[in-house]
Every structure is written in structure tokens, then in C-alpha cells.
Amino acid sequence: MTNMTFRPHCKRSLQLTAVVALGMAALGTSAQDIPTVKIAHAGPTSGGIAHIGKDTENGVRLAIDELNAQGVMIDGKKVHLELAAEDDAGDPRQATAVAQKLCDMKVAGVVGHLQSGTTIPASSIYAKCNLPHITVAATNPDVTKPGYPTTFRLIANDSALGAALAVYAKDTLKIKNVAVIDDRTAYGQGLVNVFKATAKDKGIQIVAEEYTNDKAVDFSAILTNIKRKKPDAIFYGGLDSQAGPMLRQMEQLGMAGVKYFGGDGMCTEKITELSSKASTLSGVICATGGASVQKMQGGDAWKKKYDARFPGEFQIYSPYAYDATYVLVDAMKRAKSADPKVYLPFMKQTRFKGVTANIAFTSKGELTTPTVTYYGYKDKVRAELN
């Protein structure tokens, strides 16, 4: 290597270049003056259901990286997308704090939140600051009931899931009586209420109604009381973090012959681990608001990409989070603006061919054509039933 000596004016030139570069970095621009557009993910990435929240964050991250690689043009100008990841810990109070933070950060859009109990209070914050958000997992009908123009949902709601599970219980499995348990969250209560109403209409007798919470680990008293009522099935409104231990305790109480119904919150890959591979897994029937990955248009190819990037982390909602990110960016492109107030009206005009479905929204922000898929656990592995 040849030694080189810089003249003083060359040193000053290099110093000036460094100062300019640092100044541009502080302004969020690159040397090519490419503006940054921040898209947020808000969900639980700590706590008992962190594995589900991380899965949706992965979906957003995968979409952002792909879009940046393709080159995103808004109003004829190239932009750089950046993920703003926030943990709401599955707590409603923290979710509202996160929502306000994202409003103050002036992110362009939000994929989140995960649960109905966090999405409902956060949605009012987003409405006040005109920030579009798409939930890919919160299923309580009350999420869209206020009619906020900023709220969108990418899966079927509890009215579809709860009713579909009751119909399956009666028409396919010939269930005559059932016990219900809800975790007293907005999600659990909403799902159970819809299931009960449809089950009663179908002639299914509700023989017991029990309650727990989304932090509980001991269900022996509840299950012992239910066992005395001799139900054909149990319907649980809650998440896999409680459903797994509950299934394990059902096995310990000799309840392997009792069917176990639930919604999308417990319909994960991880429930096998959380139940310690209990024999009661074979009696699980759960439903999700959308198609299985294998039946999604382009689902197999998408899953290969996901697994290559995030091996062993897939749960359930990441393809919807991936599509939600593309939907937000698609609206920005059509509006020729990443300003939420400008592109928000274009969200209602969405006609986007995603991985999960052909996506379009009603005036309330619901999918125009939601679908429901049933799952069971064959040999301890989740398998589609329809």
C-alpha cells in the first residue's frame, strides 16, 4: 500500500462531507436524499403470547424488506420503508400508550394490534390522529363497531368464527351438550357469546359456564366442576397460553374423551408444546378467520420464504401481517402520498391480490369476503379439517 499525504484543504473537504452526511442522517435522509416512510407493528412481543406477536412482526418485516428490494415509488419518487416495532405486552393500557407514541412519531401506518382487548382501546387513539391501522388477529365485532375510518381488519370476526364452530359442533360432530369457559377478555367473551347464541339455536345444551383469566395456569377446579356435568365438549374462549395447560390438566383428570373447541387465538402450532403433547390434543377443533397457508394463493411459496428467513417461528398470523403491509403501501402508491390523511380514503378503495386472499374492505373496514378454516391436531400436528 502506498502512503499518501493529504493537503490541508483536502482534510477540510473530508470533514465537511462527514458533517453533511451526519446532518442528513439526523434528518432521516440518505446521501441520495431518499425519504424514509415508517410502518409500525404493534403487538405483544413479550409475555405469554410473545411467540404469536413475534410471528406477526416477522410478517411485516418480511414485506418491508421485499418492498425495499423491489424499490417503492410514491408520486414518482423513491422511498425507503422502515419498521417501527412496538411491544404492547398484550396489555390494554400499554397498547394505548403505544398507539399514542406511534401517533407522535408520525408513522405512516400501523399493522396491529393482536388482541381485541388491545385493539379496541388503541383504535380510538388512531382515529384521533387519523392514522390507519390494520389488525390481522383481533376478531371481536366491537373492533369495527364504532365505525372509525382508520380501522381495518384482515380476517373474519367472531360473529363468523363462533357461529361456524357451533355449526361444526352440531352438524359434523353431533355434539348435544357443551360447557363453555371464557377468559374474561374482550376476545374470549365475544367469541363465547357468539358460540353460545348459535349453539342454542342449533339445539345444543349449555351445561356449564365457567370463567378464568388470561394469566391463569391452574384450571383444576373449573375442569373438575365441568367433569361432573359430563359434557360432550368444552368451548374455550381464549389463547393458546391457557388452552395448552388446560388440555394437559384435562388429560390428568381423565377427560381425553371430551372434545375441545376454540377460536383462532388457540389455533397455533405452539399449543402442542404448551400442552406437553397431551392426549387431549386429538380432541381439539379450532377455527381461524382465513384460509390455511396451503390453500392461500401463493401460500406455499410464501411459506418457504418465511421459513428461510425465520426458521421455526411460524404460528398463524404472519401471512396476514405481510399482506397488511402491502395493502398500506398500495394505498400510498395510489394516493401518491405517504401522508395518512391523504392516503386514508384510498384504503376503502383497496382491491389488492394478496397471499391470503383478494382483499377489499366494506365501509366498516371489514373484509368483503371473509373465510373460515377448521383445524384439528393429528398426531400432535395441526391439520386442516375442511
Topology (SSEs and partners):
Layout: H1 8-26, E1 36-43, H2 50-70, E2 72-74, E3 77-87, H3 92-105, E4 109-112, H4 116-128, E5 133-135, E6 151-153, H5 158-172, E7 177-182, H6 186-201, E8 205-211, H7 220-229, E9 233-237, H8 240-252, E10 259-262, H9 271-274, E11 284-288, H10 299-309, H11 318-335, H12 340-347, E12 352-353, E13 358-359, E14 373-378, E15 381-384
Parallel strand pairs: 1-3, 1-4, 4-5, 5-6, 7-8, 7-9, 9-10, 10-11
Antiparallel strand pairs: 2-3, 11-14, 12-13, 14-15
Number of helices: 12
How many beta-strand runs? 15
What percent strand? Answer: 15-25%
Give the fraction of residues assigned to helices.
Answer: 40-55%
The main pleated sheet reads as: 7 strands, mixed
* Unreliable segments of 5+ consecutive residues: 1-31
| Average pLDDT, all residues | 92
What is the C-alpha radius of gyration, as a whole number of Å?
A: 24 Å
Structure description:
The chain has 386 residues and is an alpha/beta fold. Helices cover 42% and strands 19% of the residues. The chain has 12 helices and 15 strands. It has helices at 8-26, 50-70, 92-105, 116-128, 158-172, 186-201, 220-229, 240-252, 271-274, 299-309, 318-335, 340-347; strands at residues 36-43, 72-74, 77-87, 109-112, 133-135, 151-153, 177-182, 205-211, 233-237, 259-262, 284-288, 352-353, 358-359, 373-378, 381-384. The strands form 3 sheets. Strands 8-7-9-10-11-14-15 form a 7-stranded mixed β-sheet, sandwiched between helices. Strand 10 (259-262), helix 9 (271-274) and strand 11 (284-288) form a beta-alpha-beta unit. The longest helix is centred in the first third of the chain and has 21 residues, at 50-70. The radius of gyration is 24 Å and the shape is elongated. Mean pLDDT is 92; it is low at 1-31.
